[in-house]
Amino acid sequence: MVLGSGFYVLSFHENDKLNISKGLNKMSKDVSLGKTFFAGIWDSNPVLRLLLGMCPTLAVTAAVKPALTMGLSVVFVLLFSNIVVSLLRHQLKPHLRILMFTLTIATAVTIADLYLKAFMPEMSASLGPYIPLIIVNCIIIGRAEACASKNGLIVSIIDALGMGAGFTITLCVLAAIREVLATGNIFEITVMPGSFTPWAAMGMPVGAFITLGLILGAVNIISKKTA
Amino acid sequence: MPTPVAAGVNSWFLNKFELERLEMDTLQTLLLGFIGIVLVNNLVLTKFLGICPFLGVSGRLDMAFGMGLAVTFVVTLAGTLTWIIDHVFLIGTSLEVMRYLCFILVIAGAVQLVEMYLRKFFPALYESFGIFLPLITTNCAILGLCLFVNLWGIDNLLEAVVLSVGAGIGFTLAICIMAGIRENLELADVPECLQGAPITLITAGVLTLAFMGFAGMIR
Questions:
Q1: Of A29, A140, B57, B98, whose CB neighbour count within 10 A is largest?
Q2: Is A179 on the interface with B (CB under 8 A)?
Q3: CB–CB of B82/B102 below 8 Å?
Q4: Are B208 and B79 spatial neighbours (Cβ–Cβ below 8 Å)?
Q5: What percent of chain A stands above pLDDT 90?
Q6: CA distance B77 to B73
Q7: How many domains does chain B contain in total?
Q8: DSSP string of B60-98?
Q9: What 3-state DSSP class applies to A216?
């Protein structure tokens, strides 16, 4: 993991270091395809374990719909970049590889952005700059470096799908909690009783930070119990 | 229902429109834009940009300040260069599709240039920035600012430069406040499962509440 939180591990707390190193160890040990896929969802979940891709996680989770759109866009970009990097891995010059990753990702993001603008213009407008910001999402460049540039096509595809699924599920869970508490609805369908008073703060930045903090705390408790 | 993100963008457009209607003079526009991006639309605390270094490098105040300075430097350069490239080359030749590719290349190039320049002429400063400089390429605050300048339709160079500097100062402010709080948090009795990243996120949440007080300050 050259870019992203890998460097920041230096200044992280013991708890986080333990989680991150556990996640990374699991990744390198896993060989079977099924394990590679499920590693991305729990053991080395990009958001909850590796602390990657925090910006979109916090920014688009005020409601489930944008969170799902964001998650699926990231799955597409991750798949595209992992396939291209995996196919080109023998031609890569070491000192140029980061540049090559970035350009591949930027191309994929441009495709995703144009697709959203054409077919879901309202969603594209409400997501604003966060779709183009997938370019600097550490998850994608991290997977290109840690997995796709070392493994064959099949493993890279499964890895992209697993990591993408882990990211999308995390986003949707966070968004569901926030949307229910902020508006009483989920997917714009009312689920809470009429007497429920919406918590306006949940729709604001403060709700995003605190909910994610508490979810990380819960994940720490669960992983300690199961360890 | 519009998301908060969309509401933020819309309110900025309204502000711009109102400013034009009132025919305020340029200096006032620049000043309001500057205060707006430092406090009201702070990239870290209201737009969630640059969260990775915000969480990772905010452990000690001196490191946080170094990171803030490096980001301010690069974001000023990148914001100015991308505005020029966007308006001189891309819009002129209808190549807007290439925008994201160009932006990320400019940012990576700017970081590389800054790194080479500092290593040659200010070795002491280069040593103290250390690992932060190459990391800045993947800092979302930089690309985010370039995209926001484009999204808000800033059509004069001076305003783009002022916004870029403001974004860097806003980032420095946020990360330094956070580092100060975290240095004191070391002495606090935090539940074991919340130590590390979780408590940092919760602290950041409380900090955004404080910054919400600035919302509506600029109309």
A1: A140
A2: no
A3: yes
A4: no
A5: 43
A6: 7
A7: 1
A8: SHHHHHHHHHHHHHHHHHHHHHHHHHIIIIITTTT-GGG
A9: helix
Domain that holds residue B160: 40-212
pTM for the structure as a whole:
0.83
- What is the nearest CA distance from B38 to chain A, expressed in angstroms? 17
**Backbone φ, ψ for residue A189 (5° rounding):** -110, 130
- Of all residues in chain B, the one with the smallest CA distance to A98 is B108
Residue count of chain B = 219
| Helix A205-226, helix B197-212: angle, nearest 10 | 170
Q: Is the pLDDT of residue B121 over 50?
A: yes
Q: Taking CB atoms and an 8 Å cutoff, what residues of chain A touch B108?
A: 99, 102
| Complex prediction ipTM | 0.82
User: Is B82 domain-assigned?
Assistant: yes
Place of tokens 């997917």: A187
Let me know if residue B4 belongs to a domain. Answer: no
**pLDDT of the residue at B122:** 84
Report in angstroms the alpha-carbon separations of B152 from B15, B33, B156.
11, 11, 12
A186 phi and psi angles, rounded to 5 deg: -140, 130
**B144 and A CB contact within 8 Å:** yes
Reading phi first (left if > 0) and then psi (alpha if -120 to 50, else beta), residue A185 is in: beta
**Range with the poorest average pLDDT among A11-15, A29-33, A109-113:** A11-15
Find residues 162-181 of chain B whose CB sits inside 8 Å of chain A: none
CA dihedral B55, A66, B107, A115 (to 10 degrees): 160
Give me B36's structure tokens: 């707006």
Domain parsing of chain A, residue ranges: 13-226
Amino acid at site B45? L
**Hey, of B96, B131, B138, which one would you mutate to test binding to chain A, going by the most A CBs within 10 A of its CB?**
B138
**Cβ neighbours for A47, distance < 8 A, ≥ 6 positions apart:** A53, A54, A57, A166, A167, A170, A171
What is the per-residue pLDDT across B36-52, written as a single tens digit (0 to 9) for each? 899 888 889 988 898 88
> Considering the domain boundaries, does residue B99 fall inside one?
yes
Within B111-219, strands assigned E span none
Split at pLDDT 50, 70, 90, the class of A104 is very high
Hey, is the C-beta of A68 within 8 angstroms of any chain B C-beta?
no
Query: Which positions in chain A touch B208 (Cβ < 8 Å)?
Result: 204-206, 209
